[in-house]
Write a structure and sequence with these properties.
Oligomer: single chain
Strand order of the largest sheet: 2-1-3-4
Strand content: 5-15%
Low-confidence stretches: none
Radius of gyration: 23 Å
Order of helices and strands: EHEHHHHHHHEEHEHHEHHHHHHHHEEH
Shape: elongated
Number of helices: 20
């Protein structure tokens, strides 16, 4: 049954992904409800300090900048990262709240454009006023809104909305909230809009989407000579999910090179939390757990968050080194089996007998488990991990096309396929 309720987009002008989502929001449903919030207030309210950007490793921060530009190019939207980002948006948000809601769509477009297209400082009243004037909002409405930005009721309204965002489990922007008969479903990110569309068509974010599972399916063939390196550790649920879809990338006509690494060692080397999931706010942890299950349902893959987490996967990754040496097909078969064992079957990858059973079921020699103690295999895994750091890898799965275009996450497979098919990303 199609969604009959309300689609809300929660945003702050300071978020580049919220800007990109806002440019597509009207295409999702005829009556999107705009929900401004103070993102910094959300971060503080959920115990996330100044937000995730303040704690990113240099590698991840550099990737985020590339990612913003890539999504802007894919969406066909102008984009400029201001040198002064992040800028204070309290004034812009209060001005919006003080305007009649009939002016909100035009005002939101105008202020986002000032920030993310022209790099203007929206903390300055004259910048906000000029942006609104350029959007055709009457001068008297702009002046009236400007006078009210210090009114107690406007300040209270922004605080109330921010508190409501926190109560909905929002931890970042853009956040899509779909309400219907007392139910409120939360989807985070400009890259999850296909899910929003599926919910509007009747999906409830559990079980298969309308029409059945939608495994990843590239539209084009790879350009001849394209190379694809895939860095992974089955200790990561994202890597497991990404591995399940790797044959679809290979079907484009590319032979992936599987590169098993030790994620914990990489994190230690780049100064990142050993288990990033556990370092997130409670709200984000809760959402990520749902997000993983949704990806599994979307693709039709089994998933059951392990009761034993985290697990040491050193022996498992050494097995992946052995398998990858036999070719990508063998490598992905064993790696996926190991990932499924941990992330869907509640099996302990620290147990030698479990590893033997998984290797045997994959049609491979069980004595490989003993070979994980060979110095050469240990050294190869260490070398892979060092190479990952040198390549700018900061998490898994990471896909590197032609040795230079790095994509992180199972949710970037569409971008990887575009690059293999000839797109030259930033």
């Amino acid at each position: 049954m199609r969604w009959s309720g309300v689609l809300e987009l929660w945003f702050d002008f300071s978020c580049p992904y919220a800007y990109l989502a806002s440019r597509r929001a009207r295409h999702l449903a005829p009556g999107v409800t705009w929900q401004p919030m103070l993102l910094g207030g959300v971060f503080r309210g959920i115990g996330a300090g100044d937000g995730p950007m303040a704690t990113l490793s240099p590698q991840k921060a550099a990737h985020n900048v590339r990612d913003m530009h890539r999504w802007a190019e894919i969406f066909g939207e102008p984009f400029r990262l201001p040198s002064t980002h992040p800028m204070r948006t309290v004034l812009a948000l209060r001005t919006l709240l003080a305007l009649p809601q009939a002016h909100w769509p035009a005002a939101i477009d105008a202020i986002f454009a000032a920030y993310w297209q022209r790099g203007e400082d929206v903390a300055r009243p004259e910048v906000v006023a000029q942006a609104l004037r350029g959007a055709g909002i009457p001068d008297d409405a702009i002046a009236a809104a400007a006078r009210r930005t210090e009114d107690a009721d406007i300040k209270d309204e922004l605080r109330r909305r921010t508190d409501e965002a926190i109560s909905l489990g929002i931890f970042g922007a853009p956040a899509w909230v779909l309400r219907d008969h007392g139910q409120a479903l939360l989807i985070w990110g400009q890259d999850r809009m296909p899910w929003v569309e599926a919910v509007l068509a009747g999906w409830r974010l559990s079980g298969p989407p309308p029409g059945g599972p939608r495994p990843f399916s590239p539209r084009d063939r790879a350009v001849a000579g394209k190379a694809l390196d895939v860095y992974f550790d089955v200790a990561s649920p994202f890597a497991y999910l990404g591995l399940t879809q790797l044959p679809a990338l290979a079907a484009m006509g590319v032979r992936p090179r599987l590169v098993p690494i030790l994620l914990g060692a990489l994190f230690r080397d780049i100064g990142q939390a050993n288990v990033p999931l556990l370092a997130m706010s409670v709200a984000k942890q809760r959402y990520i757990g749902l997000d993983l299950a949704r990806w599994a349902s979307w693709w039709g893959e089994p998933f059951d968050f392990p009761r034993k987490f985290p697990q040491r996967t050193i022996a498992a990754q050494r097995l992946c080194v052995l398998a990858a040496a036999e070719g990508w097909e063998v490598g992905v078969r064993l790696a996926t089996a190991l990932g499924r064992a941990m992330w869907a079957e509640q099996r302990d990858l620290e147990n030698e007998q479990v590893l033997r059973a998984i290797v045997g079921a994959a049609g491979l020699p069980e004595d490989w488990v003993a070979r994980t103690q060979e110095p050469a295999i240990k050294a190869q895994l260490a070398d892979h991990t060092a190479a990952a750091r040198a390549a700018g890898v900061f998490g898994v799965p990471t896909y590197i096309v032609d040795g230079k275009h790095l994509f992180w996450g199972q949710d970037r497979l569409d971008l990887v396929a575009r690059a293999l098919a000839g797109w030259t990303p930033l």
